[in-house]
Amino acid sequence: MKRIFYILLIFISAGLSAQQHYRVKSLKDINTDADEIAPMIYKNGIVFSSNKKSSVLVSAYNLDGSYPYNLYFSEKKGRKWSRPSIFSQSLTSRTNEMAAAFSSDENTLFITRNHMAESSLSTLQKLDSIKLGIFECKFGGSDWVVSEDFYFNDTEYMVGYPSISPDGNLMFFASKAPGGYGGYDIYVSEKRGVSWSDPENLGPSINTAENEVFPFYHENGRLYFSSRGHNTIGNLDIFYSEKRNGNWITPINLPRPFNSRQNDFGYVLSAQMDTGYFASNRRGSDDIYMFASAFPAFTACPYQEDENYCYYFEETGSMDLDTTSLKYEWDFGDGNKVRNIQAEHCYEDVGFYMVSLNVIDTLTGEVYFSEATYDLLIEKLEQPYITSVDTVRVNERFDLDGNLSVIRSFEPKDYFWDFGDGNIETGIEATHTYTSPGEYYIRLGITDGESEEDSDEFKLDGRKCAQKMIRVME
Fold first, then answer.
1. pLDDT digits (tens, 9 = 90+) for 308-329
2. Which of 29, 42, 76, 196 could form a disulfide with 47 if both were Cys (CB 3.0 to 4.6 A apart)?
3. What's the predicted TM-score (pTM) here?
């Protein structure tokens, strides 16, 4: 079966600086001197975890003396964020509630929390001695209700940080279960009816002797997670991997500004792949950061059209000359003529042509009289134009350019390439290599300027795009 790749927005192109394509900023309306971690996209905002003090009376602490984590919600309103509020009163307790994952319909929620019931907590209980587990919650119309705990939970070791695939069939999570490769390992469990399969360790391609935590599975097939065990810039770094031929590829470290020399974790990405969030302690306490694509979103790009300078000519209301020596003759203004009342003609190039319909005396060959005269201006189509081969082989490098693009409605300034495989490039010319066979849709977008420096979105007065399909063979 052939594969068709149709991706509007993209991730980071190898060899290009991520700073060129993404803007990262701290969410100052949300972050505090406490820790804010584990953002998750929910409705028009995010649900996240914070251990800021939420009550005058606190009877439980984490081992480092911090307060327990609770779930909060903040709504994005333009460039501002609403003041964070408790996400769910029914899910809030004196234990940790953190690291949430929503089903695609947002009616099911999986949270990480301590096993012990709140009523069992003793005064000044150290919560780190109570293992974490994953708990499934259902939305009851007005609030959330814990329905059951994940069957793989165990009071002897940690289980948490869930991520649910968009189709709801896979749960990725981290655990310190015996038999792993070291600290936290990442596992996956498959939904089978109303139950989950035995978890499968993702193996040594993903897991190391260090900690692999905060998995996030995106619908593009990539698994994002944080690790200290792979080749990191500093401490915890954000990586991604994907399955090829049934195996997880060697994790790829996200470049700056996503990773720093401090801890970077809890990465999530929108379905459109143009915005996302992660947490980092690069400025002290754990804070939540938002990133937005500086690569404009081009939607509904038409297929590029080949130039066609062929026309059909016919004069209505003309006389019937069939019984005389007089005949109609079209003079197309480029040296070509056709004797007929209807005619088709293809011009070789653009230009200004004076087209005449003359009545010719066939006995003398002279123009008897001129029936009509028209001015014909032929211009190239206004469109971004992709010049490239139509077929390449896997791992074959090829060139693309947009020099034949014609834009009249604004002055072209920036050229953006989307290769349809998750990679992007800028500039009027580009090169690319596909690593997998299939049919890919390449988009070339042209704009007239740049977004505002502090904006989360590209705001442009002029933009045009076009696309073409390229076939990649084995």
1. 999 999 887 667 666 678 889 9
2. 42
3. 0.68
Cα pseudo-dihedral 399, 404, 406, 407, rounded to 10: 40
Residue for token pair 């399909």? 469
Question: What is the reported pLDDT for 362?
Answer: 85
To 5 degrees, how large is the angle CA 352–CA 356–CA 359?
170
Give every residue of the chain whose pLDDT is below 50, as ranges. Answer: 1-18, 56-59, 119, 123-124, 451-454, 458-459
CATH number of 22-293: 2.115.10.20
CATH for the stretch 1-17+294-307+380-474? 2.60.40.10
Cα–Cα distance, 366 to 146 (Å, whole number): 95
Q: Are 266 and 279 in contact (CB under 8 A)?
A: yes
Break the chain into its structural domains and give their ranges.
Answer: 1-17+294-307+380-474, 22-293, 310-378
CATH number for the region 310-378 comes to 2.60.40.10
Q: How far apart are CA 249 and CA 173, in angstroms?
A: 18
H or E element, residue 14:
none
